[in-house]
Every structure is written in structure tokens, then in C-alpha cells.
Amino acid sequence: MPAGEIPPMGLGTWQNTGPRCADSVETALEAGYRHIDTAQLYDNEAQVGIGMERSEVPREEVTLATKVWVDRLTRNGVLESTAESLKNLRTDYVDILYVHWPGGTYSPEETLSAFDELVDDGRVRHVGVSNFTPALIEEARRHSQHPIYTNQVEMHPLLPQDEMRRYCVENDIHLVAYSPLARGRALELQEVREVAERRGATPAQVCLAWLLSRQNVFPVPKGTSRKHIEENIGALDLELTEEDLGDIDEIEERKRLISPPSLAPW
Ligand SMILES: NC(=O)c1ccc[n+]([C@@H]2O[C@H](COP(=O)([O-])OP(=O)(O)OC[C@H]3O[C@@H](n4cnc5c(N)ncnc54)[C@H](OP(=O)(O)O)[C@@H]3O)[C@@H](O)[C@H]2O)c1
Predict the structure, then answer these.
(1) Residue 128: which CATH number?
(2) Of 33, 42, 98, 106, which one is the catalytic site residue?
(3) Residue 4 pLDDT level (bands cut at 50, 70, 90)
(4) Residue 238 falls inside a structural domain
(5) How many domains does the chain have?
(6) 158 in a domain, yes or no?
(7) Containing structural domain, residue 123
(8) How far does residue 76's CA lie from ligand 1's centre (Å)?
(9) For a pocket test of ligand 1, which of 153, 181, 187 has the largest count of ligand atoms closer than 8 A to its C-beta?
């Protein structure tokens, strides 16, 4: 894997809480996942930490990401939130720390200089932003000493994010695709189902392989059961043809699923 690269398949954990979450994380690491995505908001960091500790995979092999919620984006809020996250996650550092949304107490100067402090003292390896537009990333870059490493945005066959992807490729920013299965909706699409049938794969694998065929895109599907977790990482072995990819590209329906009115910058 090239230096600075994110593992190709990540595990999403939103709405996976309690002991089940620890099991999912442990199962995912056993199945070969090396990127785990959580957030302060998800109320599961302690379970993620237990799952990571239970697995045999060395900490340094895993890209562990968490996010600071919008009510804690002042300097003190960022430092306190991250100290709590690290304690819950049972680790000394996270690989990516995200600004969860560019709203609430977010201030480019104050928030990003607190993120810089955390990078400087080794508690965070990379600065991430989530739900940012290119203009907001440009602003963030002017206020951050360290590079903006990732933007995590909703991306799936109903929201292909072509413009964002071009911007990220041009500016050397990893694009982490959240809700890559459109929270289950993409699995019902006729075009996705037809490609799945042709390839002897599942609809989830087709969505993920379509995302992976895009340069610089790193999906983080949520999977709770062993069945879903193993099926989803199986997408790494599925190679779609130009015809398959074209059929997904031609889906005309557009749908954004996550857009809280008080936070969404679009
Ligand atoms: N930064 C942000 O603001 C933000 C916003 C939303 C999401 N995220 C991140 O992105 C992750 C993924 O997004 P998401 O959870 O919204 O949605 P998603 O990954 O698109 O879809 C998850 C849903 O699909 C089901 N599923 C998973 N694998 C499947 C399979 N192989 N076959 C059939 N169904 C399958 C899951 O069921 P089971 O749970 O039963 O496996 C769950 O109901 C989140 O967990 C979170 O880490 C970030």
C-alpha cells in the first residue's frame, strides 16, 4: 500500500452500539478490514475499542477514525472530546480525526488550530473533514498547518459525487464514501441487481466494486452481522466490466439521504 493510503474497505459503525458493535469490529478485523470509522456522536467508541483490543491485529495496522461533533468544535471542546475518544477507544492516537459537519461551533481558525495541536503532539495522525464542500475545504486549508487528508461524504450510485471526486483527486485529498449502499436503497435498484446477477455477485458487492473502481474513493459500509461484513469485503475481488460500470453510471435517479437542515452546507 503506498504511504499515506487508506485501506480500500472500511467498516462503518453508525447505529451499531453495545456488545454487538465490539463483535462487528472484531469480526471485521478478522475478515481483513483495516479501517474502522466511528464518531463521538455514535456512542460506541468504547465498544470499538473493545473489538480492536480483542482482535489479534496490531494497532499500527489499522486506520482508526473518529469525529468531533458540532457542539465541541471550540479549542477546549476539540481537546476534551478527543481526550475522551482516545480513552474510550483504548488507544494513544487516532489515524484520522474529522470535523463531523461544518456547523454548530465550527470556526475554521479555532477548530483547525486545535486539530493542528493534536497532530503536533501525536494524538492525531491526520486531519479530516466531513460533509465539506470544495469551498469549505479551501477555507479549511488556509487555516490548517497540516494537510486536509480526507473529506468524508455521502456517495453511492444515487449520489455519484463526480465534482467532489475531481476536486479531491486534483488536491490530493482522500474521498471516504459514507452510506455507500445508500443505507440499503441502492440494493433495490434494477440496474444494480442486473449487474449482480450477471457477475454472480450480490447487489452490495456491486455498489462497493463500482465505488472502488473510482480513483481515490474509500468506502465505509456499515455491516453488523458476519454475513454482511464478509460479503462486503468480498467486493475487493469483484472486477466490473466497462459495460457493468456504464450501466451503474447511467442510473438517472438522484437521492441524498443525509442532509440535516441546520448543518448541511449545500
Ligand atoms: N460523516 C457522516 O456524517 C456520516 C453520515 C452517515 C454515515 N457515516 C459513516 O458511514 C457508514 C456507512 O453508512 P450508513 O451506515 O449510513 O449506511 P450504508 O453502509 O450505506 O448501509 C448500511 C445498511 O445496509 C445494510 N447492509 C450492510 N451490508 C449489507 C449487505 N451486504 N447486504 C444487505 N444489506 C447490507 C446494513 O445492515 P446491518 O447493519 O444489519 O449489517 C445497514 O442497514 C456509517 O456507519 C458511518 O460510519 C458517516
Answers:
(1) 3.20.20.100
(2) 42
(3) low
(4) no
(5) 1
(6) yes
(7) 11-183+216-225
(8) 31
(9) 181
